[in-house]
Design brief:
Blueprint (H helix, E strand, L loop, with lengths): L8 H12 L7 H9 L20 E2 L5 E2 L2 H10 L7 E5 L5 H9 L2 E6 L2 H13 L5 E5 L12 E6 L8 H5 L1 E11 L6 E10 L2 E10 L27 H11 L1 E2 L9 H7 L4 E4 L7 H18 L3 E7 H11 L26 H16 L8 E6 L3 H15 L1 H11 L9 H9 L7 H13 L1 H8 L2 H21 L4 H23 L5 E4 L2 H4 L6 H4 L5 H9 L3 E15 L8 E5 L7 H7 L4 E5 L7 H7 L2 E4 L10 H5 E4 L1 H4 L2 E8 L7 H5 L10
Helix pairs in contact: 2-4, 7-22, 9-11, 12-13, 12-17, 14-17, 15-17, 16-17, 17-18
The structure holds S-adenosylmethionine.
């Protein structure tokens, strides 16, 4: 076992550099521990390839192995000396115990799942770590037999620090533990024992851990048991409940959406997700719901997971009585991979509907706008800012060219800019990008008088350049940072759209479920990732209505790798432990399921226990589907409404011959 692990040596070294050292941890003993403990050996073999990811990972019994950086941060917070005796609560895989064993003299570790304790003890012994003792029991009561301890670390979140643990701490000893009023979010706290009855408490920041279940922790059987997967005890029963609560629909176009609109009520943000980026039914139902919101609820903005400049060209088309304002020299849209995500017949049909509606109601109602939220258009956006300034402020355009010159050498590969800047081989262009944005913001009012609405476009493009510059650098600090930056950018863009279109503006968002379902109710949240859905809920509460989609099987448009050609792929029937399987077992081909306040409250309770959920992006890898596409979530916390379509088909891309039939000025034209 140990011999095989050498193939991971370089990945381990990269992990130490990029995830631990880069975040400011310099303690040589701790770094040495991370360099010498093979994390892959603490995982089930099918997950070895992910061992050095910057994230927690699932282990046996539905538990998690913590993110390496979190283990490092907690180890540092314990201020361990080489002679210290440490108690760890929550052995899990045994990985953190192994790290502690390299830094301290003796480690005692307690785990409530017998099978985990057994596996961890075996792994630790195989690695020759003779200074760790593993015990199966309720760690919220500590392990009094070996007390007192110089340090205690708890790897699960409790409602407060258990009294039993404080009692087992030496005077001068440190206890580090996540504490939170709810089960989902905690603050890391450090308690130092100053005297027999005196304790000093400090807060070290927000974290997300699975719950500490035990006599001095949370009760075992509440519905939200963190990351625990339980195979549903009465699958037929829950599926029957779903069946009874579901509102079936037989067709997508022309179905009466009145009841759904009633449930949406006066929410002014409706977030409509999708479980893949290539399923026709998701696009079509999303368009139908959106039309209903525009027609009868006064929605005025459709904001989608697409590039800002491309959506801006579509926006000009759907409002085309206005003068066409050039942003970017090319008005042809959705040409970068994955083209089929927006350049498809389903989107085209909606765009045409929007244009007709705006034309019909011209003069009576403000037109409905179409905007892009994403940040992948760094260079088109630079071009758009320059063209805007050339028109309104040639002096500022010269300064802009000079500043953006820092980024332009990287046009063909912006990720390479990030790599070069992070490694110190090329200078960071942040100052220039931010200065451009601040200048535009400062002169916004001035420009507005001269050039009307295109100022919004220019400012958004400048914001995008500044955020994208950071995004490409952040990719080298880990998946969480870049994910969060992207979703924060999309949320900030939404905020500026709402501000621009005026108080009370109602907006519909179209993005993948993973952006629009509340991340804090999913495994992403446990990894420290936030998303647009969560940010909308945090800011707007019930005024944001979150709709998710799901399917069991059929076909999907996707590629087998990033940048590879689109294929129509078969979608595998859903995993037995997933929400999708539950919906399939309800035996209704298509339905709405209201989750926010269902008629029968037990629906929420039954669905609340986390299960697997599938997410297919622009890449689909059916062969490694479980690892690549399933994650844990608590559906009724993630969405207010779920739309189920059992059997689905791939979107139809707008190909050359179809595009040739469009008007020459049409943004989808060839
Ligand atoms: N340190 C672990 C590692 O490196 O793999 C990760 C620990 S995991 C985040 C939390 C663990 O705490 C789970 O394995 C869970 O079963 C365990 N746990 C929860 N409540 C517990 C309790 N009262 N006593 C002992 N273990 C508990």
């Amino acid at each position: 076992m140990v011999a095989q692990s050498t193939e991971f040596d370089s990945e381990r070294e990269d992990m130490v550099r990029a995830q631990i050292l880069a975040r400011g941890i310099r303690d040589e003993r701790v770094l040495h521990a991370f360099r010498s403990v093979p994390r892959e050996l603490f995982l089930p073999p099918e997950l070895w390839e992910f061992a050095y990811q910057d994230s927690p990972l699932p282990i046996e019994q539905g538990q998690t192995i913590s993110q390496p950086y979190i283990v490092a941060m907690m180890t540092i917070a314990l201020k361990l000396g080489p002679d210290d005796k440490v108690l760890e609560i929550g052995t899990g895989s045994g990985y953190a115990a192994a790290i502690l064993a390299k830094v301290a003299r003796q480690v005692y570790t307690v785990e409530r799942h017998q099978e985990l304790a057994r596996l961890a003890a075996r792994r630790l012994a195989e690695l020759g770590l003779g200074n760790v003792l593993t015990h199966h029991g309720d760690g919220s009561l500590g392990w009094s037999e070996h007390a007192p301890y110089d340090a205690i670390v708890v790897a699960a979140g409790g409602p407060d620090v258990p009294r039993a643990l404080l009692d087992q701490l030496n005077v001068g000893g440190r206890l580090v533990m996540p504490v939170g009023e709810g089960r989902e979010l905690q603050k890391m706290v450090r308690v130092t024992r100053r005297g027999n009855d005196s304790f000093e408490r400090e807060e070290l920041g927000d974290v997300r851990f699975v719950p500490l279940i035990g006599a001095q922790g949370w009760e075992a059987d509440e519905a939200w048991d963190g990351h625990t997967t339980r195979v549903p005890s009465r699958p037929a029963g829950v599926a029957r409940l779903v069946r009874e609560e579901a509102l079936a629909f037989e067709k997508i176009e022309g179905h009466d959406l009145g009841p759904l609109l009633e449930r949406i009520g006066d929410a002014h943000l409706v977030l409509i997700g999708e479980a893949s980026h290539g399923t026709s039914e998701f696009y079509r139902m999303r368009a139908e719901i959106t039309k209903g919101l525009i027609r009868s609820r006064g929605f005025l903005v459709v904001a989608v997971e697409a590039d800002w400049p491309d959506a801006a060209a579509v926006n000009r088309w759907v409002q085309s009585d206005r003068p066409i304002l050039a942003t970017g020299s090319d008005t042809r849209v959705f040409r970068r991979f994955p083209t089929w995500m927006w350049r498809n017949h389903e989107t085209l049909r909606f765009v045409e509907w929007l244009r007709e509606r705006n034309a019909e109601l011209r003069g009576e109602r403000p037109p409905v706008a179409f905007h892009g939220l994403d940040l992948y258009s760094l260079f088109t956006s630079i071009q758009a800012v320059l063209e805007f300034l050339d028109r309104v402020d040639p002096g500022a355009a010269r300064v802009a060219r000079h500043r953006y010159a820092c980024l332009t050498p990287w046009e063909t590969d912006p990720a390479a800019y990030g790599r070069a800047a992070v490694s110190g081989r090329y200078r960071v262009c942040e100052r220039e990008a931010v200065a451009m944005l601040s200048d535009l913001m400062a002169r916004r009012l001035d420009y507005a008088e001269r050039d009307g609405e295109s100022v919004l476009d220019a400012v958004q493009n400048a914001r995008l350049v500044a955020d994208a510059e950071r995004y490409y650098r952040s990719m080298y600090y880990g998946a969480n940072e870049s994910w969060n930056l992207r979703d924060q950018h999309m949320f900030d863009t939404l905020e500026s759209l709402l501000a621009f279109h005026g108080e009370g503006t109602k907006a519909v968002l179209w993005e993948h479920n993973s952006h629009l379902g509340d991340a804090s109710a999913t495994e992403m949240g446990l990894r420290g990732q936030l998303n647009v859905g969560q940010l909308c809920r945090e800011k707007y509460g019930d005024a944001a209505f979150l709709i998710g989609f799901g399917t069991d099987h059929g076909t999907v448009a996707a590629a087998d790798d990033w940048g590879a050609p689109m294929q129509v792929m078969n979608v595998r029937p859903s995993h037995p432990e997933s929400y999708e399987r539950l919906c399939r077992d309800a035996e209704i081909p298509a339905f709405f399921l209201h989750l926010r306040e269902p008629d029968r409250a037990e629906l929420r309770l039954e669905l609340e226990t986390p299960r697997l959920e599938r997410a297919i992006g622009v890449v689909y890898r059916p062969d490694t589907e479980l690892q690549s596409h399933y994650f844990h979530a608590s559906l009724p916390h993630q969405f207010d409404e779920y739309v189920w379509i059992d059997d689905t088909r791939a979107v139809r891309p707008v190909l050359g011959a179809d595009a040739a039939l469009l008007a020459r000025s049409h943004p989808f034209a060839p």
